[in-house]
Automatic annotation (TrEMBL), chains A, B, C:
Family (UniProt): Belongs to the P2X receptor family.
GO CC terms of this entry: plasma membrane; postsynapse
Catalytic activity: Ca(2+)(in) = Ca(2+)(out)
Protein name: P2X purinoceptor
Length: 390, 390, 390
């Protein structure tokens, strides 16, 4: 044999000699049963819990969504406070379009014919005055409504308040109607069109399902039991599903969430991926811990008189903002999470012999016999190592 | 030796005696090859697939983004139906600002000089009447346009309909121009500024890249081939990249997604993290399964006449809503997913001896010899255990 | 014994014979220490890093949120350029309501009394002309302001420009006030109500915390040190926390992010899940790489004169858009990630004997003795396998 051949042989031995543990086969029903049972538990956990319940073999992606809404309905108001008036979509939806929410006006405080001028402040402890000395020109109280001019004027026959520079007459927002003006809004309907994408899976879907036809859409209305896939919702129904009363909520306004859950298992036939609707009030209705309860905002319509003077109608709009919140996670089989979870489970399989061995040498009847055959104690002068220390 | 010393020694033996499997080295090329090859497969899987392809060693975060848009362009319309009119940004972008979408008006039905009054309904099977008996005072048909006054009036020389209380004259939205009014909108451009954050990695970036200078931005226009990083888009180009025709889409409106994908691998030089633009129509253009195809909404401009009467111009606005949808996941090396994935892969390495042992005792030529040396059967009276049962 | 009994016995042996590795116990302090120390390292890693630091035992969910904002404050402007004017919320918040951002007007270029007519272009190299031959009827320059009529008119005593059909007079937006008009906006306050949900954990929370009462909310103002949970923010404070100067930013506008981080560990008492506020400018303030620096948009107020002619006031609004960006990930103990991470860690425990064995046969003093007892070399005529090849 040449030298290189010997070297090569050593390499082959090094690389390809296979080192395998010597094993002892023990025909013990008890130990065998413990071993198989432990194995069974681990396999059951992997199959039953990780795979079936938690779907840990799936890769996941979160939803991307677009929403358009279209409200339908009209109302006629005729209360003692206000003139008779007819309301349609262009009047009560503010702003006219938005991307995933819409606001329905239900109540309001209107202050018409405001112009830039001066007028006495609304009476309050900080604004009442006796004479001009109580008012400071140029002062602006954050809780007030304008810049003081330094004069003290008669607000009414009984009260004198500092005059302010502001849009006059001032808004008196304490006179909010107790019954919402547009209570008829409860019968308005809204069509919600929602289109979603799971970009990782290149999966697109709409909430108007393929099997839904045009004539059905013209007459249907969402109902959890009879029409769970109709995308047309009656506002009253939304509010009552959220556990609220429309009449109550309409007075001071509020924020209501229309939640669309697109959680899907894309391993199954994709047609099974359906939106699930739920409704929840998002602001706090309880007056405790609450400044400015409900939901309102101010906006103005500006007019120009013939002489060029600008007047405005200030509207403090109370109403319900409906937020369409789309969420969801889709899962689809993917090799990486599968491998990771299987690998983690395999680790537990490697615990099985540890359990069985422990049972073998401590609990089985013939433990001494098994121990003697399984374990060799290397005793010859090895003890000296320990003896040195002790 | 004292008693405590003996106790201490027993503890040392318990804690530090090392129990290692007895092994058998088998110089078989076949078995060795099977062993090494299986090992190689597992290592290749870990390195090649988990690390390189799936980047399983990375921790991930999803993008947080802000968008501002600015449309430029003007148009002149002069059709037989409408007066000649010049349109600029303040006229056709509604509402004037929004956070991640913008609406470009392309077509409309204008109903000027509406006032709160009464007028006969638009003719339809449910509104035509013969005399006042067909109309019920106070009835409001959801498909109608107002509250019935109980009178039956002449709508035209041929048709009589119930009179309603509403904004009159009523809108006739069936007369939608067949050619979009603002077809010139296709040449408008939009500048999209997008700033993103990956909070977990404290990574911020904008879609106006560092190497882009101001003079380039003044003249550039997005083009997938020549200017892939220019944030200025021609509307026509967006629509055609989405596979649609601007002229068609402009008539009835629609929703178009401008998708910006910020998926990034932050392990590499961060400068390589670039936005990828794509475009997709988000509403369903096919008329089937579609109520209210396209995209439109109504809004009104309110005017006050000299005598204080409020009039409005109702506009049913058709147009394209462009939704800027920003998404993406960034990954960066992190020790936890690395350890988890390596651990899972190691589990598979622990399977390798199982495979090799199985090959050893079933397929190799000298399986009897190997089995005899590897495995000891504990037979002495152990069988009795089974014999008891059988 | 019958045949079936023998068959059954073979099956029992097959299923329940327990095969366990023969082991060798080595009483070596060195090897034992290496073994225990390596074990200790792995356990420390699992307990310390994976569990405590990275909370890898938790399942996570991302936040879903709703925001409402309400700005308070008023201002009075009286500069040489403009008429004295009083501003309140309805004037400076545009649009009046939005879902997670609000725009505060701080500066503007107003062009009142625009009507559809024709007027000479603003002078620029491309619009100046000598006579009508320089102007082409119907041409619309994208950088211009209207459709050319083909006439060359006197813009001023020194300049002649092409006449255009447009809203006239044209806006001259180069005359932006150097000091922001509404500098007083820095003292406006905003109340941000934010309600969040982690749908996977059915966890809801608001940024107005349970222990906050109504009287506190009426007077508090956010301050990182003294009032970290007050949801009322002074605009000046927001801007300065973002490292910007309000006066500077107000001139040309900008986009400012109010980031609310709801990252929570839901394993602890849920009351500890608190919002963390931070502020960051989102647009690029540096003029380099910047077309249209700052943030502005155009909108118009439309008026109708007594004779029915429509006029408008065009406003180029500069201001600060505050984007409320809510993000966060909640974690809660879940069995699947726990199992996966423990499993992965167990894999590393299975590496420990490999390390100890390697130490045993290469570094320990009695390595020859140990090797001899541990490993059996199967040499009898096995070498022939290799000999055949070499």
């Amino acid at each position: 044999m040449s030298k290189s051949a010997g070297c090569c042989k050593r390499f082959l031995h090094y690389a390809f000699d296979y080192e395998t543990p010597k094993t002892l086969v023990i025909p013990s029903l008890g130990v065998g049963f413990v071993f198989r049972f432990t194995q069974f538990l681990v396999v059951m956990y992997v199959v039953g819990y990780v795979c079936v319940v938690q779907k840990a073999y799936q890769d996941t992606d979160t939803v991307i969504s677009t929403v358009t809404t279209k409200v339908k309905g009209f109302a006629f108001t005729n209360t003692s406070d206000t003139e008779p008036r007819f309301w349609d979509v262009a009047d009560y939806i503010i702003p006219p379009q938005s991307d995933h929410s819409f606001f329905v006006l239900t109540n309001m405080v209107v202050t018409p014919k405001q112009v830039q001028s001066h007028c006495p402040e609304l009476p309050s402890p900080s604004t009442t005055c006796v004479d001009d000395c109580n008012c400071v020109e140029g002062r602006s109280d954050p809780r007030g409504n304008g810049i003081q001019t330094g004069l003290c004027e008669n607000y009414s026959t009984t009260a004198r308040t500092c005059e302010v520079l502001s849009w006059c007459p001032l808004e008196i927002d304490t006179k909010l109607p107790e019954h919402a003006l547009l209570v008829a809004a409860e019968n308005f309907t809204v069509l919600i069109k929602n289109s979603i994408t799971y970009p990782k899976f290149n999966f697109h879907r709409r909430n108007i399902l393929p099997h839904v036809n045009s004539s059905y859409l013209k007459r249907c209305e969402f109902s959890r039991l009879t029409d769970p896939h109709c995308p047309i919702f009656r506002l009253k129904h939304i509010v009552s599903e959220a556990g609220e009363d429309f009449q109550d909520m309409a007075v001071k306004g509020g924020v209501l969430g229309i939640l669309i859950d697109w959680s899907c298992d894309l391993d199954w036939w994709a047609g099974e991926c359906l939106p699930k609707y739920s409704f929840r009030r998002l602001d706090n209705k309880h007056p405790v811990n609450n400044v400015a309860p409900g939901y309102n905002f101010r906006f103005a319509k500006y007019y120009k008189a013939a002489d060029g003077e600008e007047t405005r109608t200030l509207i403090k709009a109370y109403g319900i903002r409906f937020d369409v919140i789309v969420f969801g996670t889709a899962g689809r089989f993917s090799i990486v999470p599968t491998i990771v979870n299987l690998g983690a489970a395999l680790s537990f399989l490697s615990l099985v012999p540890v359990v069985a061995d422990w049972f073998l040498v401590t609990c089985s009847r013939k433990r001494d016999l098994y121990s003697r055959h399984k374990t060799t104690h290397l005793t010859e002068d090895a003890d000296s190592l320990f003896s040195v220390i002790v």
